[in-house]
Amino acid sequence: MSIDLSVLNGPQRQAVECTEGPLLVLAGAGSGKTRVLTFRIAHLVNDLGVAPWEILAITFTNKAAKEMQTRVADIIGPRSRGMWVSTFHSMCVRMLRADAERLGFSRNFTIYDDSDSNRLVKEIMAELDIDPRRFPIKALRGRISQAKNELMVPGDFTARVSDPVGKVAARVYERLQDRLRKANAFDFDDLLLYGYLLLKHYPDALEAYQERFRYIMVDEYQDTNHAQYEITRLLAARHRNIMVVGDDDQSIYSWRGADLRNILDFEEDYPSCTTVKLEQNYRSVGNVLKAANAVIANNTERKVKNLFTEAQDGDPVKVYCASDERDEGRWIAGRIEQRRGEGMSYNQMAVFYRTNAQSRMIEDMFLRAGVPYRIVGGTRFFERQEISDVMAYLTCVVNPSDDIAAKRVVNVPRRGVGKTTVELLEGRARETGATFLQEAEMALADQSLRAATRTALGEFLGVLEAGRSFSGDLRRVVEAIIDQSGLIAALEAEGTDEAHGRIDNIREFLGVVDEFADTHTDEDALFEAPTAVSEADGEDGPGVRTLRGDSLADFIEWVRLRTDLDAAGDDGNAVTLMTVHASKGLEFDCVFVAGMEESLFPSARSIQESASVEEERRLAYVAITRARKYLYLTYASQRTIYGQTQVNPVSRFIHEIPPEVRSAVGVGSAGFSGTGWEKRGSRRGIAGSGTEAGEGRVFGRSSASGAGERARRGKTGFSSASEGRSGARATFSSGDKVSHKTFGAGVVTKVDGDTIFVRFSKTGQVKKLLKDYAPIVKV
Ligand code: ATP
Ligand code: MG
Question: Is 82 annotated as a binding residue?
Fold first, then answer.
């Protein structure tokens, strides 16, 4: 049976059915671009008999890739297997795993994350005697990253730069690439750079991929950088069946090298291309769409689009003026509970902010109010010290050349390998060209080292050996490393709450290992790469060599390629907190955008330059267009952020929304100098409707807060607003069994003034709560 394309509108259908030749779908937010891409894949496979392995679809995040795969599988079933649906980075990893040797790497290469790269660059700067105060590491790394994204190898870059920072960056870049190669490691930018170099310098490899990928599709094309552009161009050069979809108004990653020209010049690159415009928005109610259209109309450099909807106008966009950031967080929590009371689930709601620094206060207020939330981005699980340590051990097991990983854990936990020893081994490695681990091994017989040092080095190498002895059984390797390294024992000896938290994280890491094992069946662990050496044409297509991945190496790669943006799990029922950048492509019934103030959104830096205000405006457009039904914009008349108190005017983006589609709710009385909502909440047990207090009229904010607060607390059944700070709550002490509205059962581990620490049995994690405000009772 063929795919039912009647669920698409005319232009959408045209884009799905236009399968041959270059195709550009340029359309505004929520017009069905991603949906069209998904249907097109299903149509190719199901209706036109295209083999799944002939299809390459590129998405912006791993999560989006997974979603697309699931959606295609929903339409055409298991036939969807074998398609490459991935990010550019994951695709390059696949290509490099197959052909790393040609580029001077081996297949078990490591992928460096940001902190690994930082360590290495720092080391190199020290070696080259570069003063980090004159040449900040951030600036140098920025230049190197830019060079890589523009596909300049060190030689090209050195020849091109003339400014002082550039010249220093060129020296660092040169050495960095040598060191990465020696460590058998790629950083994120390298994945694209070497992916490109492989295609460019090995025609047989290029031809094999070109032959294979008859249909190439790229989502969010407006945010591709030059490297991604070139990779796509090379791959598509043979069949030229390339479809790119994007929205120039949603280009928000220029600071990371994304180049809007890639989409704007597509018609020039492929003069024969078909262009389809999608103009109907299916996502948002009328007022939200009108607000978005009006805001983006202020940008001058854009292709003008006419986006309409057949949906009802819906509620106006609601604008709330908070007295400060605490009031803002509290008010948002109140509205969320209200929507929840009306039957909307938490995971249909999201709060966006311009910078991660804003999340702390919102989180704080959510914790107090008992609103469950999940944060996307920020400090990620895998960036925690103890997790990075375990990862470094695992990396040493797989890739013994990775000096950065080896040096990271040679003395973690402390086993008596001091700085002097590390520097000695480093120096020897530099002289002999051996790796750090090889030098460590040689040092075992070196009588000039203290016996204790040799024993310690021996222990360390023994841990890695133990890990290696279980290769093939991922879970056992990880367990062996955790047990034998002594990481947990050392933390236990420390005995602090923090140390216990770290132990819990390490245990949770084993859960991550299991998650990986569950989601990566044997079949997924196989990755296919076409090679010039054509083998028998198997199920995977001509010239495809099927390689079995090493499970530990696959696991490390999987962890490394998880990005901030992927952390948005669909698990659990929780409100999503994320930066606007991370929200791209997503949609929610109810969206809050916090911090709509000049200097915050648009950012202070962008205000200096009109070009970057345009990028901020695109960001505002992305934020607004994520909302299906309800959109709330909040700003604070006074805000403390980065340790400073600021008074900022309301964001220009609010002014740009026509007055007839927005309404002020619970506008705060200017000049109110409350010290925090909890005080007001406790002072005023003012009766209120308990619904959208103050909506549509100017209302004393504090009383609106009181009403919302009361309604919420009433609902939780823990305490009423008037009890707030009265001390009528239970007195807690260590060892008390308690129950929290959101986190469930737990035990108090420590009481410190107003603060209590509770270890929750469900997660094993210790949370810090304010005892008077957390929805918590003794059981
Ligand atoms: P963005 O620019 O934000 O990435 P998009 O253009 O990719 O948006 P989609 O996410 O594909 O848009 O679609 C937006 C919403 O509209 C989705 O919920 C999708 O299912 C729905 N939608 C798209 N086209 C149709 C249609 N023809 N009929 C019904 N619903 C549709
Ligand atoms: Mg999309």
Answer: no
Residue 379 pLDDT class (50, 70, 90 cuts)? low
The secondary structure element, H or E, covering residue 26 is: strand 23-27
> Do residues 370 and 394 share a domain?
no
Statement to judge: residues 117 and 76 lie in one domain: no
Q: Does ipTM exceed 0.95?
A: yes
Give distance in angstroms: CA of 283 to centre of ligand 1. 6
In the structure, which protein residues have their CB atom closer than 6 angstroms to any atom of ligand 1? 7-9, 12, 27, 29-35, 247, 250, 282-283, 585, 587, 625
Is 286 marked as a binding-site residue? no
Domains of the chain: total: 5
Domain containing 364: what range?
317-378+568-665
Q: Give the span between the Cα atoms of 704 and 723, in whole angstroms.
A: 18
The domain that holds 334 is classified in CATH as 3.40.50.300
Which residue's CA lies nearest to atom 26 of ligand 1? 8
Residues 42 and 95 in one domain: yes
- Using alpha carbons, list the distances in angstroms from residue 402 to 181, 182, 416, 557: 10, 8, 21, 14
Atom of ligand 1 nearest to the CA of 27: 6
Return all residues near 17 (Cβ < 8 A) that are at least 6 apart.
5, 43
8 A C-beta contact, residue 681 and residue 724: yes
- Distances in Å between the Cα of 286 and the Cα atoms of 40, 315, 661, 665 are 28, 9, 9, 19
CB atoms within 10 A of CB 544: 22
> Considering the domain boundaries, does residue 711 fall inside one?
no
Looking at the structure, do residues 642 and 581 belong to the same domain, yes or no?
A: yes
Which of 38-52, 208-222, 534-548, 591-605 bottoms out in mean pLDDT, i.e. has the lowest? 534-548
Q: What is the mean pLDDT of residues 335-342?
A: 95
Same domain, 95 and 232: yes
Q: What is the pLDDT of residues 699-712, one digit of tens each?
A: 222 333 333 333 33
Q: Which two tokens stand for residue 592?
A: 């809050």
240: region left, alpha or beta (phi > 0 left; psi from -120 to 50 alpha) = left
pLDDT at 681 over 80: no
Where is the domain boundary, 183, 213, 248? 183
Q: Give the end of a domain, one of 474, 505, 530.
A: 530
3-state SS, 61-112, equals: CHHHHHHHHHHHHHHHHHHHCCCEEECHHHHHHHHHHHHHHHHCCCCCCEEE
| Residues in CB range of 551: below 8 A, 6 or more apart | 472, 473, 474, 517, 525
CATH code of the domain containing 751: 2.30.30
Looking at residue 668, the DSSP 8-state letter turns out to be P
What's the pLDDT band for 533 if we cut at 50, 70, 90? very low
Q: Is residue 406 part of a domain?
A: yes
Q: How confident is the model at residue 668 (pLDDT cuts 50, 70, 90)?
A: very low
Q: Give me ligand 2 centre to Cα 350, in Å.
A: 17
Do 440 and 495 belong to one domain? yes
Tokens of 594: 């916090």
Q: Are residues 79 and 225 in the same domain?
A: yes
Residues across the chain = 779
Point out the residues that are catalytic.
Answer: 33-34, 219-220, 250, 626
Is the domain of 430 the same as that of 481?
yes
Residue 247 Cα: closest atom of ligand 1: 2
Q: Which ligand is nearest to the CA of 618?
A: 1
Task: Count CA atoms closer than 13 A to 410's CA, side-chain side.
Answer: 28
CATH classification at residue 156: 1.10.10.160
* Domain contains 719: no
In a domain, 308, yes or no: no
